[in-house]
Write a structure and sequence with these properties.
The protein contains four helices and five strands. By secondary structure, the protein is an alpha+beta fold.
């Protein structure tokens, strides 16, 4: 079993950070068949996600995103790639101050 732990500081408002986290949750639900649940906590929000072979949480606070995940045996072999994709998404979002998934949503032609 492989573990992922990632922390990214951000300069977004808590509202914008939550919106980005919800965009990420929608993406993993649509593309990776994850089940996601969201609940506010005392510092921001906590999104729990799971599917066969992975469970984890994404915590959103005023200052940072913190992701913890446990990958099962099969997905553990792809830990580097998974970590790379998550890092890419967070870095793009933080560099632009916008959710990079918004571009993808526009291309799909789907209503939000």
């Amino acid at each position: 079993m492989a573990n992922l732990h990632m922390v990214r500081e951000h300069g977004l408002s808590l509202t914008a950070a939550r919106k980005a986290a919800h965009g990420w949750a929608q993406l993993v639900q649509d593309k990776l068949d994850m089940t996601c649940t969201s609940e506010p906590d005392k510092e921001g929000e906590r999104i729990s996600f799971s599917r066969t072979g992975v469970t984890g949480t994404l915590r959103v606070t005023q200052e940072r995103f913190e992701l913890d995940a446990k990958l099962g045996l099969m997905l553990g072999a792809f830990k580097g790639r998974i970590e790379s994709e998550i890092t890419k998404y967070l870095d793009e979002m933080l560099a632009s101050g916008q959710d990079p998934l918004a571009k993808l949503a526009g291309k799909k032609g789907r209503a939000s």
